[in-house]
Amino acid sequence: MPLYDCNMERARPAGYLHTGLDRYEVFDFQKDGLGKLKSFVKRKKLPFSFHVPFFRPSYFPYIGVTAFFLNDDPSKRDLSFKLINSTMHYAKGWKADFVVTHLNWMEDSKNKKKIMNLASDTELRFCKLADKYNLPVNVEFGGYSGFFHEPTQFVEFVKNHPLLGICIDIGHTFLISETRNRNFFRDVEIMAPYTKSIHVWNTKGLDHCKKYNHIPVHPLQKTNDGWIDIKKTLEIILSCNKDCNIVFEYNHTYYDKIPGKVKEGMEWVRDIVKRT
């Protein structure tokens, strides 16, 4: 029996190579784009990470950010575990230095007790995968829906294994805090000591994000206009871990053709890191 409905429409892979500070992160490629990608990262000779999925296999027709680790359906959970195992296998082969994965997205169980049991099982299985491949796994903070959305829950999830850590996606963390009526900076403070990587982009809120998706950061984005205070957010995280890996998670793959305004924002972040 197939793991998914063969008649369902297959989502188009995003194919993002995200530029970071002296590094890259690969997300959701098609196989026919891997040759160019591999040549590029070899030529750059910079560290890079893989965001699950590294590439979209035929057995996973959903959009790349979909995660079923906390889903009621065992077959859907199996899909997500198969996907992270595949990504870690290729990460080891390509010599990526860590893997980032979503834990939850939009289809978590509606049963609170079951969510906690599924989270506990997923934690153990992530630990085994990290040990198997001897690769760090950074769990991206999430929780737009369901019962697993507290920063303390993510801390508990990663804190007992040296190869597990948190990835704070600044935009999503802000939107989740807003959705849950929590203090964004307090959420960041709780997770900061366990944070190993950061996804950097900006937004003014949920409606703004739905319209424009991930906006490149820039020093002219003022909090009085509704933008996230990127500088303060980075300072909170970096004060706990100066060595966090920083990736700019934007809507485009630039390779070497980064627009001037986007470069200005990247260099602004670099300066924040140097001064923190």
TrEMBL record:
Keyword Lyase tagged:
no
Q: Which Pfam families match?
A: AP_endonuc_2
- The reply on keyword DNA repair is no
Q: Which Gene3D superfamilies match?
A: Divalent-metal-dependent TIM barrel enzymes
The Xylose isomerase-like TIM barrel domain, residue ranges: 23-271
In its UniProt record, a GO molecular function of this protein is:
isomerase activity
SUPFAM superfamilies, per database record: Xylose isomerase-like
Q: What is this protein called?
A: Xylose isomerase-like TIM barrel
Q: Which source organism?
A: Candidatus Scalindua rubra
